[in-house]
Amino acid sequence: MSATPVPLHPIRTAARDDAVLDALAAFAASEGLGPGDRLPTERVLADRLKVSRTTVREALTRWEGLGLVERRQGSGTYLKAPVSRDMLHLPLTLPSGSDLDSLMHTLEIRRGLEGEAAALCALRAGPREIALIRHKLEVMEKAFHERQGMSSDEDWDFHQAIFRASGNPLFEQIVAAMYELFHRFWEHPLGVHDFGHASFPFHRTLYERIAARDPEGARAEALKIIASVEADLRRGAARLDITGSR
Amino acid sequence: MSATPVPLHPIRTAARDDAVLDALAAFAASEGLGPGDRLPTERVLADRLKVSRTTVREALTRWEGLGLVERRQGSGTYLKAPVSRDMLHLPLTLPSGSDLDSLMHTLEIRRGLEGEAAALCALRAGPREIALIRHKLEVMEKAFHERQGMSSDEDWDFHQAIFRASGNPLFEQIVAAMYELFHRFWEHPLGVHDFGHASFPFHRTLYERIAARDPEGARAEALKIIASVEADLRRGAARLDITGSR
DNA sequence: CGTCCATAATTGGTCCGACCATTGGCCCAA
DNA sequence: TTGGGCCAATGGTCGGACCAATTATGGACG
């Protein structure tokens, strides 16, 4: 078979659902609708778009499944996330990960991405971004000393600032999903009440390597943080003798 | 804020849709249905489950949006991925730019993940996995020589085999999304008709490092592939003088 | 005047029956 | 064997109806 350079997209004859979502995204953009805002009722949409309510509902159902929208019976349909006409929806489906392996898997992804993001951040961050990262670091350190332990929120704010300074929005979104995945099954620190403690000093060294515009140094420090969390996780797992089942 | 150990699942007022999906997942499990298999007609499901076809359709629409299922009018509804009652779906919405920067962003993600996956693969792959990777490599090399150039499909098959051998299903899913994001705006090789050509030899060296159980060597070879594609992309962009807009 | 509660209107959730568009198999003829 | 045309099956859309939860309304009562 000879090469077929053209992907030959299958022709979409019926794209009514997609058309509804496109129109809705355009509407949200023109109206400046953001998360929390309420969008028109299904009946209004059906009337305005000249389609049946069934079609509107099918379209909204898809957005609901993607977590973009929340429907409240008797109240209305509300935006949960910013929507746009050209967005890529990446549904990650994985076997119910309440076991140690799944937690480790999220850390493996983070190991790859956090190192890369830190390196890129050291290359691209401007003075303003570096100042912001420093600020987040200080907030985190303050919270650490006050509460005698790592604080998830402040810790995430710090990492988030680094991702944003990397100039690549994909880092933040993917790692945010890993964070959520991780915390969904990490309600208790597995009996290790100083969980994450060991990773604390590396946050400052990571900041220093970024401020020094040292990509490889920053990457190394970021990897230390992940390795430290991994070690804590293994420690807690060994203590609780987690075997894999929920 | 103090720790709130209980996730507090939002109250599910209406669980009819979910009940349908649960029943369908159970059915798929009992029948041993896998990807590619066709599942019962909407009308049959509605009759069997004692719900209306509308409800069945809403449920299937959610699965369709999650990419678990594919509907073909006039033919039926087919499984695209293994489904299970307790499976975690983490929808991820990414801004999909159509400019050069976005293409580069996907490569930055791949740089982090492919290196990590290659290293893990070298650590964990068993003889069977390594044999499969070798086979995919040979298929790719054969296609390369026959068509005088890289072939996307065979190339992806090779990388996919590596991801699967890494033991972490997240790698394949995330990078698959990056692939899609990349190819969505890369119909033509930007005028570089030997696009990807330079990355060809590194595929074999990558395989050799994996077969030798050399994690860091495998990581290095994987990074060479990404760097090569990046260089090609910059080359094509420079030629076409792409400035960012589509 | 303000508060409280029953009532009505609004809105999403489900159901039904019908029809359309596409697909795929079947049969028959060239 | 091949080709075309017919036809049943299947997903897609439609309109209308009713149910359930929520919210707004407005009057009664302290």
UniProtKB/TrEMBL annotation, chains A, B:
Keyword terms of this UniProt record: DNA-binding, Transcription, Transcription regulation
Pfam family, one: GntR
Record's keyword annotation contains Transmembrane: no
Domain spans labelled HTH gntR-type: 14-82
InterPro entries membership: GntR_C, TF_FadR/GntR_C, Tscrpt_reg_HTH_GntR, WH-like_DNA-bd_sf, WH_DNA-bd_sf
Name of protein: FadR/GntR family transcriptional regulator
Species per Swiss-Prot/TrEMBL record: Chelatococcus albus
